[in-house]
Amino acid sequence: MSSFNIVRVENVDEEKEDELLPTDDQGEPNVLEQSLGRTYEEFARYALHLYEYVQSLIETPIEDAPPLNFRAVLTRDLGFEKIFNFIYPTSNESFVHIYKGKMDAHGNYKVIEPRLPEEMSYLTGLVEEKFSLAVDEKVAAEIVENKEEVLKRIFESTVIPVAGLSGVREQGRTIFVSEELYQSLRYEIFTDKIGLGRIDTMMKDPYLEDISCNGLGSVFVEHKIFGSLKTNIEFLVREDLDAFITRICERVGKPVSRRRPIVDAALPDGSRLNVVFGDDVSRRGSNFTIRKFSKVPMSIVQLIKYGTLDERMAAYIWMMLESGMSMFICGETASGKTTTLNAVTVFIRPTARIVSIEDTPELFVPHPNWINEVTRRSETQTSSIELFDLLKSALRQRPNYIIVGEIRSREGNVAFQAIQTGHPVISTFHAANMQKLIQRITGDPINIPPTYVDNLNLVMFQSNVKNPKTNQLQRRVTAIHEIVGMDPVEKTYNFIELFSYDPITDKHTFRGIGNSYLLEYKVAPMKRLVHKDFRKIYDELELRAYLMKRLVEMKVEDYNEVYARISKIYENPYLTSMKVDDYSKKVIDKILRET
Fold first, then answer.
1. SS (H, E, C) 200-249
2. Looking at the domain that runs over 300-514, which CATH code has it been given?
C-alpha cells in the first residue's frame, strides 16, 4: 500500500542523538537502545509499538541469543552466523524480529505490528458498520476502480483521532478514538481490507521466499538469508483457518470448497498460492503455501555474485540463446529454476518476438515484443485453456522464442514439435539428472520419440547444495550438458557435461577448449567460422565472460539495467572479431561505461 512505504532515514546530528533516544528512569538513554543506533531511533519515534517491544526485550532478554541489532537492510553475509538476533522493517508500521539462540533447534520469526488490544477488537466490526452506511452506488463504483484511496477517504471521515481521549466515543456515523487507538485501528482495517490480514507483514517482507501453513499451529517461512523460520503467527481454531483461506481464494477469484478443495492461483502481487482445503484431505486441517513473487526478478549478475553460476557459464548461455538453441532448466522443487529462467532471458536478442506460456504468472521478459499467456481452468473441460492449447496456438504467432513456465505433461510433445519446426524453446523441468530427464520425456504422458530427444540442445541442472563455508543450503547450477545425439544401434544418448560443480570448493569447472559440440558445430558455422578456426569461438566466450565479470565488479545488479547493458552490446560487432587481449578488454570497458 502506498501509505505503508518504508521511510527514508534522515541523518541525525550527533549532538541531537541523545535527545532523540528514549531514557530510563534516571533520565539516561538505555544502553541497548543506544546500541541499536540512529536508524532504530528514527523508526521508534513514529512506531510506539516497536519501542514498547524493544522495552520488553530489555526487561526479558532472549536466552543464549547474541546482542539485539536493528538493521534497515539485511545482507547475505549475515547468513554465515549460526546464532542471530535482528529486527528489521518491512514498512513504516510493521517490523520483524528474527532470532536464534545457542539452544534453539529452529530459528524464530516474530512479527511486530500495531495491533488492537484484544478488548478493543470489537472496533473493527463497529467501523465496518459505519463504512456500510457511507457506501452508496457511486462510492461502490469508485471502490472497484481505486479501492485503497476510497477506503482511506472513508476511514478518515469515519474515525477521528482525539488527543487526550481515553477510550472510544461514538457520535452518529463518526467514531472518536485516542491517537494510539487510531493508528492501531487504521492498521487493522487496511491490512484486512487491502492486505492479507495476519500474514500481511510477511507478504511485505522482501527477504521471504515462501510462507506456509501446514494446518493448525504455527505458520512457517523460508527466509532468503536465514532459511526456515517458525513465526509467531498461529491458527489454533479450525474455523478461523478455513475462513482465512476462503477469503484469500475469493479475493483472487478462485473460490475453494470441499467439492473443489485444491486451488492454484496467483495473488494480486504475482505470488503463487496453493491451497488444500478441509480436514478430509488434509488431516491437520486446511493448509496453504505462498511462493513470493518479486516484481523485479533477480538478475544474472546477482546470480553470479551469489555463486549460483559463474561468469563463463553465463557467457556460454548468452551465446546459446543468441544463436537460437533450445534449453531446459532442470532441478527439484524450489531449486531456483524459474529465477534462473527469468535471469537468462536478458540474453535473447532484444529485437526477438517472444511468447511465454505458464500456469501461474511467474515469468518476466524485458523485451518489448513479448506475448504473455496463461492457462485458464474452469468447471467444464470445454472452457478450460491448458498449456497444450496455448503452445499449439503459439506456433502460429511466429515467435523467435517460446518460453514455457514448466513442462509437465503432453505439452512437452508440442514443445519438441515446435523445436523441430524452427521455434526454439526454453522451459523448466523437474528432473535431477540426464537419465531421469530422458526417462520422463520419453515416457508417459510426454511420450517424445527417443530419436527426437537431440532436438533439445542443452540442459542445465540446478539444485540446493550445502555451502561448505556456511553449512547452509544454497542454490547452485550443478551441471550444463550438451545433447549430441542418439546411437540408434546401442540406443544410448551421447551428451557432454561441459560445466560441472565441485561441492568441496564451491566452484564451477569448465572442461575447456575443444570440448563443446554446440560451440564448434552449431554456433561457429552461424558466425561463418570454419572448423580450423574453432578457437575463435572460445575467444568470444572468454570475452563475454570478461564482460559479465565487469558487470559484477561495476555492481550493475538491477534486472532492467542489466538488460539495457546487454542490449547495447548487441549493437556492437566487437565481440565476434576481437581477440582476448588488453585492447579488447578496454573496448568492452568503454562500451559498458557509455551505456
1. HHHHHCCCEEEEEECCCEEEEEEECCCEEEEEEEEECCHHHHHHHHHHHH
2. 3.40.50.300
